[in-house]
Automatic annotation (TrEMBL):
Its EC number is 3.7.1.17. The keyword Hydrolase applies. The keyword Lipid metabolism does not apply. This is 4,5:9,10-diseco-3-hydroxy-5,9, 17-trioxoandrosta-1(10),2-diene-4-oate hydrolase. GO terms for cellular component: membrane. GO terms for molecular function: 4,5-9,10-diseco-3-hydroxy-5,9,17-trioxoandrosta-1(10),2-diene-4-oate hydrolase activity; monoacylglycerol lipase activity.
Amino acid sequence: MAEFESVWSDLQGVPFEQGYLLAGGAGGIRTRYLRAGHPGAPVLLLLHGSGGHAEAYVRNLAAHAEHFWTWSIDMLGHGFTDKPGHPLEIHHYVEHVMAVVRAIGVERISLSGESLGGWVAARAAVDHPDVIDRLVLNTAGGSQADPEVMQRIIDLSMAAAEDPTWETVQARIKWLMADKSKGYDDLAASRQRIYRQPGFVAAMRDIMALQDPDIRARNLLGPEEYGAITAPTLVLWTSHDPTADVPEGRRIASMIPGARFEVMSGCGHWPQYEDAKTFNRLHLDFLLGR
């Protein structure tokens, strides 16, 4: 019998905190986080994907907290973080991330993002090279516009937000994963609660702005942007990513000076969850310069 997968089981025994900070000072953005590690350690900030939340990294907090003051946040407009009430483009997310860094009270961080989080992380590394020590782009978006994938993201995300039944939310979670045989019940329950918040349908529409062809076009990253990244970078891809194939990941890496490229087999869009042991090893080897 398959073992039940629980967010709490993943965090059980892990010294972690859940809380909120104000990004941008008084009157700023109330930002939810999961945090583990020691305040004196270097800071690692983890960014989830579109429509996601901090629990994307529940299987990674413990390993990374041994070396970093590790923060996984609900990004702007996502999870239980404040919803600004307008379409969200990459610069809005980057501004929020930088406000979070200032609120934490540090000058430099390592930054790792998955999907939308990778897109935001890459842009942050271009715009704020003085802040980013090391960069990880994990099945990152932002390099292309595939109409079929964009429409699939809209359909699954809006269906889950407009009618957050078990089936619609579970379908959105399963789309992320290579292994479709599992129920991912605890993740689905966590996301269902988020999607049932009053006003979340409008928030999801704002999140989906980057799937609009015109908006996406002005936010995409190309050779000039990737080529301007100066932070040591790991581009991490998977064998079963539903958004882009391995050659696209390799193409991104080829545009970033000196980037390392790794492929994880048997994983979809959430390798940090589906194969946490391998992800944690590759991720920490890179972040620690090993």
